[in-house]
């Protein structure tokens, strides 16, 4: 008799962005004449950079010719892309990696959900609170998180590290010792960044406790401050305790194109086992490689034109971030983030709950954001806006919010 994985039944509600999508669809259906501005999910709106599109066309033509056609991609990624990653994302920052420490995939969301599979079933995870929901949900599905308490919004076997205004949204080292620590910096959802000395503390802590850090650096392209590291490997000793996740989604607009990679250094071993070997084994069994055309598109991100065009895109979104940050401050909101990140984190006005503010903003300003409570209990009373909209829509949204007062 078939039985379901009961761990799935422990998941409260549906995935955050599915819930929001459904609500907005219903609202738009009931109000077809309203122009809804979506600053909720962190999905990009600018088209792919020209250099990337050119590479896609060229690769598509290659696929049409017998001599250059490609079937299955190597499951860990084509060498041309892995070398470009090593050269441009790391060597240029003083970090030496070899290409077999880079594992190409079809997205950082799936990598961040899948990475837990290579750890023991009874590992204890620590997460920031608020947190990108995938880290927790994927561990719930794996049966690692204990039971859910609807009152506190917490799982019994997860170590939550509150990121609040009191600690500037930077987590403190946990009291209890975790086996796996998820860190996302620049942070989703709060937009906070970690300075190098702050990240170094985590690296030292993980090495001391023999814990592994899963460092999600999907937003590194948005860093503007010079003392904020782009990679955890800029910290001393990180290669023995950290895996790093990177994405082409937010910098180069690949949210619909799908491309990412994970770095697992050779020095990273647990119980004498190289984690890279396990991750490679997992890839080999469950993944047939990111498509050739997409990897060629990824390679183009590192070309001279590609780099320039990506920098322009990031600049465009960061101008939006400034519009939101400055506009809401002027309107009397308490806001943070938006300096090293495309996310702006604001305190909901007049003690409104996060979901209450979501409805209020949708119904009164036709603006969609993301309720902080959707990212965890410490996000209650907060709200996230993304800078990934168009400039015109961002200006309009801020204007509408300002009209509401705070
Ligand atoms: C977000 O809005 O938090 C992100 O778009 C989610 C993601 O990257 O999967």
Overall shape: it is: globular
Order of helices and strands: HEHHEHEHEEEEHEEHEEEHHHEEHEEEH
Q: Into how many domains do the coordinates divide? A: 2
Distance between the termini: 57 Å
Ligand inventory? D-malate
Topology record:
Elements: H1 16-30, E1 37-38, H2 50-63, H3 79-90, E2 102-105, H4 108-114, E3 125-129, H5 133-141, E4 148-149, E5 154-155, E6 158-162, E7 180-184, H6 196-209, E8 212-216, E9 242-247, H7 249-252, E10 260-263, E11 269-270, E12 273-274, H8 275-286, H9 292-301, H10 304-330, E13 335-337, E14 343-347, H11 354-365, E15 367-368, E16 370-371, E17 382-386, H12 391-404
Parallel strand pairs: 1-15, 3-6, 3-7, 7-8, 8-9
Antiparallel strand pairs: 2-10, 4-5, 9-10, 11-12, 13-14, 14-17, 16-17
Describe this protein with a few key phrases:
406 residues; alpha/beta; Aspartate Aminotransferase, domain 1; Aspartate Aminotransferase, domain 2; 2 domains; 12 helices; binds D-malate
Describe the model.
The chain is globular. The chain has two domains: 6-47 and 305-404, Alpha-Beta Complex (Aspartate Aminotransferase, domain 1); 53-303, 3-Layer(aba) Sandwich (Aspartate Aminotransferase, domain 2), CATH 3.40.640. The protein is α/β, with parallel strands linked by helices and 406 residues long. The termini are far apart. It contains twelve helices and 17 strands. Bound molecules: D-malate.
């Amino acid at each position: 008799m078939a039985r379901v994985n009961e761990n799935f039944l422990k998941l409260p509600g549906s995935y955050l962005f599915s819930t929001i999508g459904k609500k907005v669809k219903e609202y738009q259906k009931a109000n077809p004449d309203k122009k809804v501005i979506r600053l909720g999910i962190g999905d990009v709106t600018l088209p792919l950079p020209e250099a990337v599109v050119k590479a896609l066309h060229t690769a598509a033509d290659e696929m049409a010719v017998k001599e250059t056609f490609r079937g299955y991609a190597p499951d860990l990624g084509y060498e041309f892309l892995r070398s470009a990653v090593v050269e441009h994302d790391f060597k240029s920052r003083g970090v030496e990696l070899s290409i077999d420490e880079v594992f190409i995939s079809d997205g950082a969301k799936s990598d961040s959900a899948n990475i837990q599979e290579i750890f023991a079933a009874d590992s204890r995870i620590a997460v920031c609170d608020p947190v990108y929901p995938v880290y927790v949900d994927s561990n719930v599905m794996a049966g690692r998180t204990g039971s859910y308490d609807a009152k506190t919004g917490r799982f019994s076997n997860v170590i939550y590290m509150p990121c609040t205004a009191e600690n500037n949204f930077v987590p403190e080292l946990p009291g209890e010792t975790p086996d796996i620590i998820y860190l996302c910096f620049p942070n989703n959802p709060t937009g906070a960044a970690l300075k190098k000395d702050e990240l170094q503390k985590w690296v030292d802590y993980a090495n001391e406790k023999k814990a592994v850090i899963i460092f999600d650096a999907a937003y590194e392209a948005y860093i503007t401050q010079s003392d904020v590291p782009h990679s955890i490997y800029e910290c001393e000793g990180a290669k023995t305790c950290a895996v790093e996740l990177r994405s082409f989604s937010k910098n180069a607009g690949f949210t619909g194109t799908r491309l990412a990679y994970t770095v697992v250094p050779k020095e990273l071993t647990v119980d004498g086992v190289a984690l890279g070997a396990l991750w490679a084994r997992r890839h080999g069994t469950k993944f047939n490689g990111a498509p050739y055309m997409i990897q060629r598109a990824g390679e183009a991100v590192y070309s001279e034109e590609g780099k320039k065009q990506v920098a322009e895109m990031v600049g465009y979104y960061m101008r939006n971030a400034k519009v939101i940050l400055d506009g809401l401050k002027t309107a009397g909101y308490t806001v943070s983030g938006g300096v090293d990140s495309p996310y702006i984190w604001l305190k909901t006005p007049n003690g409104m709950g996060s979901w209450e503010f979501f409805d209020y903003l949708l119904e009164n300003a036709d603006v969609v954001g993301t309720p902080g409570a959707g990212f965890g209990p410490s996000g209650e009373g907060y709200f996230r806006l993304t800078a990934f909209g168009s400039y015109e829509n961002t200006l309009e949204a801020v204007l509408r919010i300002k009209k509401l007062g705070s």
